[in-house]
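Model: Ready when you are.
Researcher: Fold this.
Model:
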Amino acid sequence: MSMEESVRTCLAKYIVISGRARRSEYWWFALFVFAVSIVLNLVETLVLQGLTFGLLSLLWSLAVLLPGICVGGRRLHDRDMSAWWLLLALIPGIGAIILLVLFCLPGTNGPNRFGPDPLGRTPSGMAAA
């Protein structure tokens, strides 16, 4: 999945937590959000010289909050885990590390309780025909 495809998918499903998200969908979206945040911070710091008091960054963060939560939940669904595991982020330090590891691990082969495999794999690991 390309970055453009990933961003388009995540923004189209901005309040859809059902289904599964492959690793590439999650990480391309995370990279996009991070890159835009860096650019907005540079614009606010260098061009606007603090006149907006971080308003652009705040608006961007609010705009991508729900899509970020939903794609994280779908990523956990790909691991056959409930989206409630996202609450680990509330545990300082260790919660974010655990989620980072979970987001990096591959999803389950074949369909699981959250839907079909987004990579089209069968439970034996071979691609579906």
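Researcher: Now this one.
Model:
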Amino acid sequence: MSQASAPRPFLSLILGGARSGKSRTAEARITSLPQPWIYLATCEPRDEEMAERIAHHRDRRGGGWITREEPIDIVEVLDEAPPGVPMLIDCLTLWLTNVMLAEYDVSGECDRLITRLEANDRPLVIVSNEVGLGIVPDNALARAFRDQAGLINQRVAAIADEVVMVAAGLPLKLK
């Protein structure tokens, strides 16, 4: 008789627009689990306003969190973190921005991330912006970003156990 493999730990994708409440929703998902929790921040404080946003997020989270800041190599953080420790990645679209601006191979980095997520070894919640609901951007870089964000969101959603869209602070379960 062959042994059945253990089920992959829970993977959740939380989507929404700017200031929709998606990060707060994701944090609530993770903090419903036992501590410690890992917060993988992909944002870099490139200006004072962004530094203030980061500080606001950090202050809101409070204790119990281990914060890792990594703008590009989130697969490495997933690999190095202790197995089983719940992790929140905030956010996938900032990660994509960083990958694109660094002129990495976007397709290759997305493939690498999806491969790692398929081998997920922890409760994992990923935050991402839904950017495809607005107008068509007027420049090639913005259109490429919108397209790549839509594609990576679709790929993560396909392997996620749960997909939630947040609007006006209200979560709507899609999957």
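Researcher: Key takeaway?
Model: Helices lie at 22-31, 48-61, 74-80, 92-101, 106-118, 140-159.
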